[in-house]
Amino acid sequence: MLPLPLAELRSGLPALGNPANISRAVALTGKEFKFSFGNALEQSESDALFDRWTIPSPARPLFEVAVANFNPHAESKVNTHNDARGPLLLISGTADHTAPDVATRAAFRLYRDSLAVTNLETFQGRGHALVIDHGWQDVAERVLTWLSEQGLGPEARAVEAAQAH
Question: Which of 14, 86, 112, 128 is 20 to 30 A from 163 via CA?
């Protein structure tokens, strides 16, 4: 059972507010995008990201996740005890309204019994747009470092490719 903060519910409301949306693509308004994705940004940056990146998106995955806490056979169910899976890095922005830090930390705790590598990287004061906003390079650098630490970075792939020839 994951926590469901009010900000997360409000972020999902444009899609979840109408049950008919389950089979539709839903577009956010600039104001909805600012709350859900750009809340940690200046209005001008949020508006620029909205103009560049937003497209209508399927609502079905949001409906599936919204009921997952109440459905033991949910489509979105994950085996968090799988010891044979690959490494997992969860990324959290402490100001994220769409996937709040408290929910990401709760998801991280669900993996505590797995022997597979699971890490959490938290970015202070960052919102849901952290991979496309002005600070995306910081996130990308941390992810690349983590991949290298797991033997999965670009240099590891180059070594594998060289060994294959």
Answer: 86
Q: Kindly report the CA angle at 78 between 74 and 79, in degrees rounded to 5?
A: 125
The crossing angle, in degrees rounded to 10, of helices 60-68 and 6-16 is: 140
Q: Which residue type is seen at 128?
A: H
Q: What is the pLDDT of residues 124-162, one digit of tens each?
A: 999 999 999 999 999 999 999 999 999 997 776 666 666
pTM for the structure as a whole: 0.85
**CATH for 113:** 3.40.50
Based on the fold, state whether residues 99 and 150 are members of the same structural domain.
Answer: yes
Q: Which amino acid is at 36?
A: S
Secondary element (H or E) of residue 124: none
**How do residues 74-130 score in pLDDT, each as one tens digit?**
877 889 999 999 999 999 999 999 999 999 999 999 999 999 999 999 999 999 999
Domain residues for the domain of 42 are 6-68
Would you say residue 1 lies in a domain? Answer: no
